[in-house]
Amino acid sequence: MGIPAERIERLFALAREAVVDDEYDRARRYVARARRIAERNRCGVPSELSRRACDDCAVYLRPGKTSRVRTRSGRVVVRCLECGSTARYPYDGE
Fold first, then answer.
1. Which residues pair with 59 in a beta bridge?
2. Which of these, 23, 25, 24, 46, lies nearest to 34 by C-alpha position?
3. What are the residue ranges spanned by the domains of the chain?
4. SS3 89
5. For 37-73, what is each residue's pLDDT tens digit?
6. Is the entire prediction scored with pTM above 0.70?
7. CA distances, 43 to each of 8, 89, 93 (Å)
8. For the chain, what percentages of helix, strand and coil (3-state, to nearest 5) are there?
9. pLDDT tens string 64-83
10. Residues within the annotated binding site?
11. Among 7, 28, 52, 87, which has the highest number of CB atoms less than 10 A from its own CB?
């Protein structure tokens, strides 16, 4: 793992801590900075981390605080409470 990947993971960890402390603007800046590092170094954000942030407003998604999570037949539906965008991911319930 290279330096950009380590920085991206660290910034997402800081974003998670900021959301726990109810500092959503700081969490949004951390996520935006992590995405900028990934873009600049052409490494991409890992999928397990990219699903934790809203694509439109870059807020860190935490169920119950900044997002609503529902399970539908064969998929998970995540709705951002900041901007209202919806993301759907496949889910195998077995």
1. none
2. 46
3. 3-90
4. strand
5. 999 999 999 988 988 899 899 899 999 999 999 998 8
6. yes
7. 10, 22, 31
8. 45, 20, 35
9. 999 999 998 889 999 999 99
10. 54, 57, 80, 83
11. 28
